[in-house]
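Issue: ligand-bound run for glutathione - logging full I/O for the record.

Environment: standard queue, default settings, no custom constraints.

Inputs:
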Amino acid sequence: MARSALHEVSDTGAFMRTASTFRNFISRDLNSQFPAESGRYHLYISYACPWASRCLAYLKIKGLEKAITFTGVEKTFCKGLYQPSVLRLVNCVFAICSKVGFQALSFTIVTKFVCSLIIQSVKPIWARTKESDEHMGWIFPASDTEEPGAEPDPLIGAKSIRDLYEFASTNYSGKYTVPVLWDKKLRTIVNNESSEIIRMLNTEFNDIAENAAIDLYPPEMRDQIEETNEWVYLGINNGVYRCGFATKQGPYEEAARQLYEALDKCEEILGKQRYICGNRLTEADIRLFVTIIRFDEGWVPFSTLDTRKEVLIFPVGRRGLILGNEVYAVHFKCNKKLLREYLNLFNYLKDIYQIPGMSSTVNMQQIKRHYYGSHPSINRYGIIPLGPDINYSSPHDRERFPA
Ligand SMILES: N[C@@H](CCC(=O)N[C@@H](CS)C(=O)NCC(=O)O)C(=O)O
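Outputs:
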């Protein structure tokens, strides 16, 4: 079983997501195994992760922050840069030479050439979840001042999300993903599947939720929400991963085609109504939002050099731009069109972002630092691109539709 999304690739080079393992349900029935009690459950999230951010959005929208505590993990699997000791030695010799006035010696052509070779061997250090193996994944910071939005584990003193899974199940062999919904009383994982966690948060805590009246999965709209979730998941939520993690051109192009078909469909629908399922905010909007808010900043410049097999995957869009600027050709994969080029979708994105509580679930710095700094087989040096720094709080035009 794959222990990381980077290994969920079929022989044909397509990204194949495996199902989540912990699938228990919290119930409003106080006699059930996991009753909806205030203070009993804890949500582990990463601000970088769209699936975890769905759950966080529900905590905010439903007014459940007092009832369910949460902790964020560190943004990135990359812990800094490794400098070989020989490079440190050369730096030291340089410093001494320039101090004692031998600048000429330290900058001879030969010295520069040797140094450039050594500098190329500077590598990012990728954090491992255990000393005993190579697995990389979510870890907790050592102190709560190390990084805004990330704290040490307050419950069992776990050093990594992996520790939580291994604490909950001694024979667990899958991925160590966020979100994790944790039961403080039974000291175990209740559920690690965001699509199910949001359903529980929507209804089961209504006796203690501050905004119990908000129903994001109303009975009369369920068929339509399910139908929308299906194509949005395939083409967009999971579609961006199918583009980013593909290791062969064919599966990448198939994923990119489906992604843009789905985005075009959203654009058309949102040209006629305020929300994706009609004139009412639903679960389908939250699920769509968490992916499209990461689109222009998070997904676009994934490096296309896959160092696992040293294959080049060429992005399907922007052929003109590729000819004019080859760096973009290497780095842009979901680049047929930027999100902000879709007028309805972009205004809709701002509309959802401006719902009270939603902007606090979006930490763009963590999103960028995580994606670029956590997948060495995709972005070998962990370089984080600058920009584009979009202002999602600026005015939108969505009030033109009834709501
Ligand atoms: N099906 C899960 C997917 C969660 C998921 O893939 N989370 C990613 C972060 S965006 C993760 O934790 N990946 C860790 C890894 O692959 O090692 C859900 O929706 O809850």
